[in-house]
Amino acid sequence: MQHRTVSEIMTPSVITARPSSSFKEIAQLFNDNDITAVPVVDDEGHPLGVVSEADLLRRAAGLPYPEGRRARLRLMPLDQAQAEAETAQAMMTSPAVTARPAWSIVETARTMDRNNVKRLPVIDEAGKLVGIVSRCDLLRPFLRRDDAISDEIHRDVLDKTLGLSPGTVHTRVRDGVVTLTGRVTERADIPVIERLCRSVDGVVAVHQTIGYEYDNLGLDVEPPRGHRTTDGQLGI
Questions:
Q1: Please, what sign has the CA dihedral across residues 11, 15, 19, 22?
Q2: Which of 15, 32, 145, 197 has the most C-beta neighbours closer than 10 Å?
Q3: In which residue ranges of the chain is pLDDT below 50?
Q4: Are 16 and 38 contacting, i.e. CB atoms less than 8 angstroms apart?
């Protein structure tokens, strides 16, 4: 099976800012390019951090009211420093959390979730910026057509990977939800089939009612303590 990587879904042409970029320059970048964040890069193209709309709003929230009153905000020292910042270097969140082009969608999504970020600059082996990937990009594989998902399951999962005979397992895909039916020889094959189908790009969920001829699950599991075995002996 082939899974999409970051290099296939990222935006390769990235709008960037420099450490010396001003608040107004960054706000103009957001407006002109319809974006909500920019990586801040050095002279060699290495990402140093990211400035987002939230960073600009934090700065704007610290400004006085038009009538001269100061905004009454209780900010942590770091947030206060960012609220008073005038350049990208002072406003940005750093260091930048980054991704690599060869990362899988799952690995990338977990990194975003773990770091509570909405986008990741993508860097090459030299640490230079080569793209940016967003939450929206990660959802793109779920736009695959149902027939394309079904074809991949039959070709790559059931045939090439598991070597099942045609007609052993039947699939129906609707809105990315896969339903599996049919009958296999060994019960232990069922969770494997289900797991592999879930890993296909674009699959939202998998439901199965696959039957089996031979139950080979749990044959090597020792009976629990106090359980009477088939020969009448008490397991201890």
A1: negative
A2: 197
A3: 65, 71-73, 75, 77-78, 80-81, 221, 223, 227-236
A4: yes
